[in-house]
Design goal:
mainly beta; 15-stranded antiparallel beta sheet; 2 helices; about 5% helix; about 65% strand; elongated
Amino acid sequence: LLNAPKGELNVNSQINLEDVRNVILTFFPQKNRVPSISGKISTTGKFGFNTLNDINGQASMNTSQVVLDHFKLGQAELTMGIRKNQVMINEIKLEHNAGKATLKNTKIEQRSPFHFSTKVEFDDLDLYKFFQSIGLADVPAGFVANGSAQCEGFLGATPLVNCVVNTDMKDIWVKSEVKDTSSIVKLKQAHITGETKLTKDKLNYKADIQLGQKSTGTSTGEVKFEEGFNIQFETNNLDFNDVESLANLNLKGVTKIIGS
């Protein structure tokens, strides 16, 4: 048995995450701060293993009011299978104050650096509400998005997430400061394809933008979570009929714009 361990495990549990954090702090005093966490996770499932490298099983999980530091994860439901130490999740449904998202065909390797891949479908995702939930309420930009993203990356000590995004957006705005009553740019709708790169410290993106029927452009940007943001945009063909507002100016015709 010690050379080739085998067994089965049936799981039916409800975990209070705040209690888990307290246990960790009691038995494993930390030199660095342990993030505050609260909420509950309910799990049912059955697992079997032939060796420690050959674990198989299925489980379902529900989360309730999970909060990690200032990030509100909201509600989630998922069903998953484990085969040869690879976690395969058919579907994860997430509800957040900023919108709803569904993760499909998620795969996670159960060995460092924990490579993963997933397809994300999101409905009415409000960017500014999301920024508020992670403590970035001073980022003066927002939109509501519906679309999808194909993502992959690593979940180890230095997490990395790369995504290819295809989305329709509406109610787009950029201001100098959030408290300003007027917008630098305000758009009714846009279609965007692009790429994002997310690490624990920052978010980078580059995107191609289609505005209305005639206008096209590109944008690149970087949001550093502890420092601030830098956004650049360029359009070689901007029809002002496709723009709701540009610095509150009454403009007509077609132009080229470069800015940041």
